[in-house]
Amino acid sequence: MCEEKKTDSKPSNNCEDELKELKKRLKELESELAVKEEEISEYVSHLQRLQADFENYKKQKEKQELELIKNANEKLILNLLDVYEDLERAIENRENDGDGLEVIYRKFRDTLRKEGLSEIPAEGEKFDPFLHEAVMVESHDEYDDGIIIEELSRGYRLNDRIIKHSIVKVCKKS
């Protein structure tokens, strides 16, 4: 800081110069602060727009997913309607058509396969906990340990995904 001489009642030029410099620096800093505050305001506005856009995107994506599921179900139902109507006709005319139900069964099975459904092999296969659910074990001379003796309920894959495990009885050697 500037030092005043005791004999001089006026502040020295040095103090006045320093004061002017400080005032000038203060104005520069205030100007820089105003610029930075404006930048912050712009960033906040931009962030708010991005957040709103993201929320709109999420809502649109959810709506599209629901629509996709709805359309997928509609396609499946449309494919099953022919089988349903054939089954209805076979029941109405069951005295006249002994093979009708067998034809409908094959058509229904083929429709499900066309949609990506496949059966999981079980009886005589090695037990696989990813494909089968063992609910019973039994000692059996004809089968090796861990081989499926009997399929109690069939399992299914839809495309590559297991949708129902086979319920099985497994051989367990004593």
Written account of the structure:
It contains 2 helices and 6 strands. The chain is α+β, with helices and mostly antiparallel strands. It has a domain at 119-174: Head domain of nucleotide exchange factor GrpE (Nucleotide Exchange Factor Grpe, Chain A, domain 2). β4 (155-158) and β5 form a beta hairpin. α1 (13-92) runs antiparallel to α2 (100-114). The mean pLDDT is 86.
Task: Give the name of the CATH superfamily of one domain.
Answer: Head domain of nucleotide exchange factor GrpE
DSSP strand count: 6
Question: Span between N and C termini?
Answer: 100 Å
Name the CATH architecture of one domain. Answer: Roll
| Arithmetic mean pLDDT | 86
**What composes the largest sheet?**
3 strands, antiparallel
Q: State the strand order across the main sheet.
A: 1-4-5
- Percent helix: 40-55%
Strand-residue proportion = 15-25%
Subcellular location: Cytoplasm
GO molecular function: adenyl-nucleotide exchange factor activity; protein homodimerization activity; protein-folding chaperone binding; unfolded protein binding
Family: Belongs to the GrpE family.
Pfam family, one: GrpE
